[in-house]
């Protein structure tokens, strides 16, 4: 399932591709009959909250987004959903976002020049739930968990069920801190609860906990407000980097060549732009994610894996032995994990 930074990249792609213009909408698959009601309306823009995408449609471009005439298409990609874009050069920020995923968080594959130039004649696949076509290109949605039309109240009902999103300017980190400290659940479970914090997936969970040197099983109520505030700041930096580049990178430069291996069931996956010079490849991007049984980059202890909140979690039992604050770890390792957020060395830091 794409993590939150991917959905924010998706919203940016829609803003660039269709924002403020009338669009044609259809449902080649026939499972989204509401597409006919939206056909010819103006797509005012796009917004992301956690893993949820909202596309507001209005009768005219000057309609207030808060007007009751606005209808919001709500999309949650889930495990199998994806958007594919085709159009003129520079039309969108991506060619494909979502499943099938061969790369971290999203897949982006450019169409051939002839195919992109002839986008108006592209016949939709029979699995396309929703097609949106504008002046310069189109976007096809396949396999989403949710695709529905909501009024303002329906959109608000979804937002009310979500915790703060680290990528949104209106996010209140105090909600995250207070929700965690009220709970007896483990921090490993709480970070995957979208009511606690919106947008975190399995990669960010594992890496954030390692960077904080926290045991995933520590109860939320045992953590200090100061530590949780620092974790929030770290998460904001990591996800902002992901939204900007499409890549999840959590390692410090000096740690990347240490035990640069990764274990996955399928053949080696790649991140976006791995073929470009200077980027950090997947096997050097993470501390513990998919590194079970391999030596920790910092202490050499075998990385472990287990299940929390119905998802596999990865951690180093030595580095992540702390159950409250990071003080003891900081004394042993002068380069505290929080420094990562401010050490920007090209692709070096998140």
List key phrases describing it.
6-stranded antiparallel β-sheet; N-terminal domain of MutM-like DNA repair proteins; Helicase, Ruva Protein, domain 3; disordered C terminus; 5-stranded antiparallel β-sheet; alpha+beta; 350 residues
Overall morphology: globular
Strand coverage percent: 15-25%
What is the top-level CATH class of the largest domain?
Mainly Alpha
User: Largest beta sheet, briefly?
Assistant: 6 strands, antiparallel
* Helix percentage: 10-25%
CATH structural fold name of the largest domain: Helicase, Ruva Protein, domain 3
Count of domain modules: 2
Tell me the number of strands: 13
- Based on the structure given, which CATH architecture of the largest domain is correct? Orthogonal Bundle
Low-confidence stretches: 101-113, 325-350
Element order, helices and strands?
Answer: HEEHEEEEEEHEEEHHHHHEEH
Count, helices: 9
Structural class by helix and strand composition? alpha+beta
User: CA-to-CA gap between the ends?
Assistant: 21 Å
Kindly describe this structure.
With 350 residues, the chain is of the alpha+beta class. It folds into two domains: 157 residues, MutM-like, N-terminal (N-terminal domain of MutM-like DNA repair proteins, Alpha-Beta Barrel), CATH 3.20.190; 161 residues, Helicase, Ruva Protein, domain 3. The strands form three sheets. Strands 1, 3, 4, 5, 6 and 11 form a six-stranded antiparallel sheet that branches. It has a five-stranded antiparallel sheet with strand order 2-9-10-7-8. Strand 7 and strand 8 form a beta hairpin. Helix 1 packs across helix 8 and helix 5 crosses helix 8. The C terminus is likely disordered.
């Amino acid at each position: 399932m794409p993590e939150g930074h991917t959905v924010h990249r998706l919203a940016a792609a829609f803003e660039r591709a269709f924002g403020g213009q009338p669009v044609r909408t259809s449902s080649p698959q026939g499972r989204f009959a509401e597409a006919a009601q939206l056909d010819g309306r103006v797509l005012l823009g796009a917004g992301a909250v956690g893993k949820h995408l909202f596309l507001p449609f209005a009768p005219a471009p000057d309609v207030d987004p808060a007007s009751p005439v606005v209808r919001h298409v709500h999309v949650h990609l889930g495990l199998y959903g994806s958007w594919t874009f085709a159009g003129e050069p520079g039309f969108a920020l991506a060619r494909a976002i979502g499943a099938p995923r061969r790369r971290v968080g999203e897949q982006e594959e450019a169409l051939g020049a002839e195919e992109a130039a002839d986008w108006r004649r592209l016949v939709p696949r029979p699995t396309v739930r929703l097609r949106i076509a504008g002046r310069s290109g189109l976007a096809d949605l396949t396999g989403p968990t949710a695709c529905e039309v909501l009024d303002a109240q329906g959109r608000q009902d979804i937002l009310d069920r979500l915790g703060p999103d680290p990528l949104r300017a209106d996010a209140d980190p105090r909600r995250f801190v207070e929700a965690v400290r009220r709970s007896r659940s483990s921090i490993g479970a709480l970070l995957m609860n979208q009511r606690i914090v919106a947008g975190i997936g399995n990669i960010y969970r594992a890496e954030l906990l390692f960077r904080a040197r926290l045991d995933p099983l520590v109860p939320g109520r045992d953590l200090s407000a100061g530590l949780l505030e620092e974790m929030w700041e770290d998460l904001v930096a990591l996800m902002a980097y992901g939204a900007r580049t499409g890549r999840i990178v959590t390692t410090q430069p000096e740690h990347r060549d240490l035990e640069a291996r990764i274990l996955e069931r399928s053949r080696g996956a790649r991140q976006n732009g791995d073929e470009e010079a200077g980027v950090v490849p997947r096997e050097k991007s993470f501390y513990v994610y998919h590194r079970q049984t391999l030596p920790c980059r910092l202490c050499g202890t075998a990385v472990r894996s287990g299940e929390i909140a119905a998802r596999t979690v990865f951690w180093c039992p030595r580095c992540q032995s702390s159950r409250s604050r990071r003080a003891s770890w900081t004394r042993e390792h002068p380069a505290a994990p929080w420094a990562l957020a401010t050490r920007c060395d090209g692709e070096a830091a998140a």
